[in-house]
Write a structure and sequence with these properties.
Elements lengths: L7 H6 L2 H7 L7 H12 L15 H9 L13
Helix pairs in contact: 3-4
């Protein structure tokens, strides 16, 4: 297993403070991940209210479910 990935058992054995201390930065929301992904793809999400996003939090969840991004937090798979 890569050093950047922890097994479920290892995470459950740690306390929340230990996990936070080991992370290089705090986790971000799906919406922030979507905005960053859109920027990286060169298609930034619109900033005007009411315009459709180019990359959505749903797309981020799709990437996580397929192992292309790492998910964390209490988000339910789906």
């Amino acid at each position: 297993m890569a050093s950047s990935r922890w097994s479920r058992a290892a995470v459950k054995a740690m306390g929340a403070d230990a996990i936070r201390a080991a992370m290089p930065c705090p986790p971000i929301s799906g919406a922030v991940a979507a905005d960053r992904s859109a920027d990286a793809l060169g298609i930034p999400d619109p900033t005007t209210f009411g315009e459709r996003a180019n990359v959505t939090a749903f797309a981020v969840r799709w990437f996580v479910n397929r192992g292309l991004l790492t998910g964390s937090g209490n988000a339910q798979p789906g």
